[in-house]
């Protein structure tokens, strides 16, 4: 704890000195908030741009930047452009902590934005609280970011508890599966998903038939796989990263172990699909906290993306994201991870807009709490309040078909498919 107290003393000194001199041509003391000048607002982000979660961090960042770059081209927010200082933490908690210290103390950012991962984000929470800096749009559904409640933490997405509760309900009530195992990453992220699954199963008088884990940053899943395979599980809930989950599924294929696989959203649909490829008869379900983007991908072309268009002029969040991704990152394909980053940026910009020209951290939080019914997609709105810092509640379910995840349109149809595949089963 002495480290956080020292950091806060340094930050307080830096803020005091900052109030004694002019910033960007302002009169002295005009802006009390760090990271704010007459022409810009600087935010900070530490996320995985390399390593086992590199795809997740890269796409989260690019999704957010699609929106922010267009906003800046359109004149910024209240006359200020939005700048983002970004550091790679490779999904490593100590590195994330060091990056965050640098963002707060040296870079003097206004707020923290778009962090990726539970173990990394949870690590910085004491620093966030002591520095009094807002943290918005985390790519994690961890319960530790929701309880106890903090006005400094702003979640856009539904939680892992919500994802796993909805998944267990479908597995048990709709599909009639009762032998359910859990494969999880042995850290705060995996424990959160494991706990959510156990709580959901308990409502049906069940518990996991097996638990298997692996160490974060590795593909050493063999021991965990062995425990689960020997349990005769009908379904496996997977709380990991795309590399480890892909390895688990590959081992299952090699050993003719064919349960239903379910993964939470953090696994990353597009990267998992790329790594494992299609396999006839296999059932792989993934929950999402944003709508599927395949329709938007088909609807937009590079030619459309190059046409003059502003964020305000384009309709439909997923389609806007697809168009801007093609404009700024033409080699990328629209994906659920990037769309979540895009939504994060939408909420950020709306809160900054409402906070007005006299921007402070306290004013930013108050403005955020005034957002009710912000439309991200037709029928999908984000709302906040003084006691509610999670904008979205919905969970969507997708299934891997022909190499891509598409919306599950019939649980009863899937139940019939699974019944027909069982020995002696009939459609």
In short:
The protein has 427 residues and is of the alpha/beta class.
Q: What features would you describe in this structure?
A:
The protein is an alpha/beta fold. The chain has two domains: 2-16 and 27-158 and 296-382, Rossmann fold; 160-288 and 396-421, 3-Layer(aba) Sandwich (Rossmann fold), CATH 3.40.50. The protein is built from 16 helices and 14 strands. The protein has a seven-stranded mixed β-sheet with strand order 7-6-8-9-10-13-14, sandwiched between helices. Strands 2-1-3-4-5 form a five-stranded parallel β-sheet, with helices on both faces. Helix 9 (242-254) links the parallel strand 8 (235-239) and strand 9 (260-263). Helix 6 (160-174) runs parallel beside helix 7 (188-202), helix 9 (242-254) runs parallel beside helix 10 and helix 14 (336-355) crosses helix 15 (361-369).
Count of discrete alpha- or pi-helical segments spanning 4 or more residues: 16
- Gross morphology is globular
Number of domains: 2
CATH topology of the largest domain: Rossmann fold
Please state the average pLDDT score.
89
- The CATH class of the largest domain is Alpha Beta
**CATH homology-level superfamily of the largest domain:** Response regulator
Radius of gyration: 22 Å
| Class per helix and strand makeup | alpha/beta
Q: In percent, how helical is the residue content?
A: 40-55%
Largest sheet: spatial strand order: 7-6-8-9-10-13-14
The largest sheet, given as strand count, sense and whether it forms a barrel, is: 7 strands, mixed
Series of H and E elements:
HEHEHEHHEEHEHEHEHEHEHHHHHEEEEH
Low-confidence stretches: 8-31, 299-315
């Amino acid at each position: 704890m002495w480290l956080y107290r020292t950091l806060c003393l340094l930050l307080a000194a830096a803020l005091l000195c900052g109030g004694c001199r002019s910033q960007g041509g302002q009169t002295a003391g005009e802006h009390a908030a760090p990271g704010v000048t007459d022409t810009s607002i600087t935010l900070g982000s530490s996320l995985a741009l390399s390593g086992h979660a590199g795809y997740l961090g890269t796409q989260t960042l690019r999704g957010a930047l699609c929106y922010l770059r267009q906003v800046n081209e359109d004149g910024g927010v209240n006359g200020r452009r939005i700048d983002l200082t970004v550091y790679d933490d490779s999904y490593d908690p100590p590195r994330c902590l060091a990056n965050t210290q640098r963002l707060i103390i040296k870079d003097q950012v206004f707020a923290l934005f778009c962090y990726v991962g539970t173990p990394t984000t949870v690590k910085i929470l004491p620093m966030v609280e002591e520095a009094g800096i807002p943290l918005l749009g985390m790519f994690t559904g961890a319960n530790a970011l929701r309880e106890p409640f903090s006005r400094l933490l702003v979640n856009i997405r539904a939680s892992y508890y919500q994802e796993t509760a909805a998944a267990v309900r479908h597995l048990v009530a709709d599909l009639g599966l009762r032998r359910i195992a859990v494969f999880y990453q042995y850290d705060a992220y995996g424990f959160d998903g494991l706990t959510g699954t156990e709580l959901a199963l308990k409502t049906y008088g069940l518990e996991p038939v097996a638990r298997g884990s692996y160490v974060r940053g590795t593909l050493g899943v063999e021991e965990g796989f062995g425990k689960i395979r020997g349990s005769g599980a009908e379904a496996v809930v997977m709380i990991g990263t795309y590399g480890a989950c892909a390895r688990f599924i590959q081992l299952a294929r090699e050993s003719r172990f064919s349960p239903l696989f379910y993964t939470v959203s953090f696994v990353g649909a597009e990267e998992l699909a790329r790594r494992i490829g299609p396999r006839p008869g296999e059932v792989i379900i993934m929950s999402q906290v944003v709508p599927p983007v395949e329709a938007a991908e088909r609807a937009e072309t590079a030619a459309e993306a190059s046409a003059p268009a502003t964020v305000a002029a384009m309709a439909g969040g997923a389609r806007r994201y697809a168009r801007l991704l093609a404009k700024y990152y033409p080699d990328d394909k629209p994906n659920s991870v990037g769309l979540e980053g895009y939504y994060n940026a939408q909420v950020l910009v709306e809160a900054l807009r409402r906070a007005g020209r006299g921007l402070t951290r306290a004013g930013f939080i108050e403005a955020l709490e005034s957002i009710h019914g912000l439309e991200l997609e037709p029928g999908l709105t984000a709302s906040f309040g003084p006691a509610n810092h999670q904008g979205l509640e919905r969970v969507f379910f997708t299934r891997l078909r022909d190499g891509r995840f598409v919306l599950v349109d019939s649980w009863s149809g899937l139940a019939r498919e699974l019944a027909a595949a069982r020995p002696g089963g009939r459609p």
